[in-house]
UniProtKB/TrEMBL annotation:
Residues 244-337 form the MaoC-like domain. Gene3D superfamilies: Hotdog Thioesterase (3.10.129.10), Leucine-rich Repeat Variant (1.25.10.10). It comes from Thrips palmi. Pfam families: MaoC_dehydratas (PF01575). The lineage of its organism: Eukaryota, Metazoa, Ecdysozoa, Arthropoda, Hexapoda. The gene is LOC117643948. One of its GO terms (molecular function) is 3-hydroxyacyl-CoA dehydratase activity. This is Uncharacterized protein LOC117643948. It comes from the Eukaryota. InterPro entries: ARM-like (IPR011989), ARM-type_fold (IPR016024), Armadillo (IPR000225), ARMC7 (IPR042462), HotDog_dom_sf (IPR029069), MaoC-like_dom (IPR002539).
Amino acid sequence: MLLSARTMFSTAERLKERTGKKGLPRFEYLQELVTEFQDTTSTEAKQQVLANLANFAYDPINYDFLRNLKVIDLFLDQLAESDSILQQYAICGLCNLCLDPQNKEYIIHNGGVQAIAICLSSANEQTVLSAITTLMFLIAPESKDLITAVEIVECMVRLSRSANPRLRNLATVFLEDHCTPAQVTAIRKQVETASIPVTVLEAAVMTWARWRGPAARLCRLQRLQHTQPRPRASLKPGEKATLVRRITEADVRVFGALCGDANPVHSTGVPSGPADGGASRVLVHGALLNALASGVIGSQLPGPGSIVVGQNLRFPRPCLVGEEVTVVVEVKEVRKIVEVAFRCIVDAASDQPKVVMEGNAKLIMAELAGPSASGEGG
């Protein structure tokens, strides 16, 4: 971390004795730092100021000042910057202050988990270490589903195999302390069989851009590998790819806001039957399930270069918020047009699996797509 012995915990009495430059009281000094950060056009100056703010974030005596000055927002905004040093100092600052209950709640409810998860793809070792640590610090009943979402767990599984012992050990601690053995086993099996690079929350990028404003659009997602379109000739009928994801209330809320669907069945829910005591059930958008299948088609099988030109869908049973969905995509036919079938299944490993969506799609691959091709990406 950025902190030093001089930034250890203070008392109110000591704070009166310790002032900033020019004898300014602490609040005014921090305010000057924030103003300098906002006004300067020098990247180096911004880096120096952010490093100072990250250091001050270590001491709880400063938390009220930092909250009043919106420094947490400043840190969150810098996670979307392309400058790796600014990103490193910002995540260090968040890591330093996120154990405070008030700060923790603010970060969770302002898109912080999604923004921090993007840092898992950084090429900067300290940034990744701070991101993993911060995510563990942010674990709470209301945030656990989001922090242990399949995309983040997939990143942790891959990092747990890193040649870097610090990354490997910390990712392993995350998996052992915060994920179920079944969840880790399923993701490891998926990672072993997949021929794709780390998936680092493209959906989170969209969520972050929506929640945090234009600054987030500067984000440059740094992949650990580069994905190339797969030759159509290498596809084989019967080949399958899967994705496991638990759909949370936050997923449904963000998706509804993104597409403008204000249907109350996706917010307040619909009454259940007498057997369930009449409690309301919040339904997952069918389009959200289709988006999950589309993600598997576009990133795994057939993978990058897939362009959907036709699709049929059925929704035999409702999918409810909180249910774990297994998406299975299977190649059915490989010609000029590639045909795949897909299903979304709840409780796939149980004796009574529930199919909540099924369908098929016809695709063309990037090698066939020319200026006249129409359709939408997988």
